[in-house]
Amino acid sequence: MEFISLLFVLALGIHWLNLQGQRKRTALLAEQLRPFHIEKNMAQLTGAYMRALGESDPERQQHILQLQGDAEQQLASEFQNLAREFAKLPAPVTRGFKLALPYIDQLSPKATFDMRRLMEVHAQGIERTVRNPQGLAPKERSFRMMGEMFLMQHSCHWFCRAKTIASARMVAQHQTRYEQAMDAVSPETRQAYLAVVQG
Fold first, then answer.
1. Displacement of CA 48 from its chain's centroid (Å)
2. Which residues pair with 114 in a beta bridge?
3. Which sign, positive or negative, has the C-alpha torsion 27, 31, 32, 35?
4. What is the pLDDT of residue 37?
5. Is 129's pLDDT higher than 80?
6. Which residues contact 57 (CB under 8 A, 6 or more apart)?
7. Per-residue model confidence (pLDDT) at position 54
8. What pTM does this model have?
9. What is the CB-side half-sphere exposure of residue 124 using CA atoms within 13 A?
10. Cβ neighbours of residue 169 closer than 8 Å, sequence gap 6 or more
């Protein structure tokens, strides 16, 4: 019985320490996001893309997508600026946990990922999709942009909380599974992303 009580107290302690770490990472990310309109632009673009992709009239679809140019440019520019600002932060506070265990970063740095590098991966992926060097058709480009945005949002939630929570939020908010977002992003983003989170 004493062993079960000890396990219960240990589990409570781990949970409390996890919550403290999550609060600090959430506050840090919120502070970094505050000067930008990233979430507003993402919401606008997601709504417009979903409307366009559900549109049966090709001309109407094209018109909706063409109207998103300013928001796309602003999102790409602001996320580049966010990644630059985030890169200035010191390493310990920018480590995300692959496993939701307190102090895992001190026991094994390989059990963490560097959110500064992940921000740069997402900034490049969004900018590349806006620039569209592959010459994707508007519909395919919009689909890729949603993948880039959703995976970036997933990374932010993972950094703040945990991968399982981030994946559940993406399903709840966008009806998109983690694997679907990974398939939707560009090969360059996927390769760079995996290098950071699996490295």
1. 20
2. 95
3. positive
4. 94
5. yes
6. none
7. 87
8. 0.86
9. 14
10. 154, 157
